[in-house]
């Protein structure tokens, strides 16, 4: 077992699962990031050179996840929702304001 998780409390780390390391093994402890792995962090985004070119090749190779018909229906629903929101903005704002009186 190479990596284990734990909780830091009062100057000590308590492991969630005891590691099977040799006594006296050298370890490295790092604070775990709040990043949960959804999307791409800004610092990982390739901004130049071959890294960017490779990322663009991979992005261009992705297949669409909607058919053209699904995309058309989605865009129509989005437009309808936007128009409804604009048309009802003042009424919805007034209703929301009543909640806080």
How would you explain this protein's 3D organization?
By secondary structure, the protein is mainly α. Helix content is 44%, strand content 8%. It is built from 3 helices and 2 strands. The chain has a two-stranded antiparallel sheet with strand order 1-2. Strand 1 and strand 2 form a beta hairpin. The protein starts with 5 loop residues before the first strand and ends with a helix. The model has no long low-confidence stretch (mean pLDDT 87).
The number of helical runs is: 3
Distance between the termini: 58 Å
Radius of gyration: 25 Å
Total number of strands: 2
Outline the biggest β-sheet.
Answer: 2 strands, antiparallel
Helix and strand content put the structural class at mainly alpha
Helix and strand sequence: EEHHH
Kindly report the average pLDDT value. 87
Shape: flat
Low-confidence stretches: none
């Amino acid at each position: 077992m190479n990596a284990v998780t734990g909780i830091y409390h009062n100057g000590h780390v308590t492991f969630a699962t005891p590691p099977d390391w040799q006594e006296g093994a050298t370890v490295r402890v790092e604070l775990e990031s709040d990043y949960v792995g959804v999307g791409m962090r800004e610092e990982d985004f390739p901004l130049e050179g071959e890294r960017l070119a490779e990322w663009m090749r991979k992005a261009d190779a992705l297949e669409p996840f909607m058919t053209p018909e699904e995309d058309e229906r989605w865009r129509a629903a989005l437009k309808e929702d936007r128009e409804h929101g604009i048309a009802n903005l003042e009424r919805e704002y007034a209703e929301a304001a009543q909640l806080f009186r």
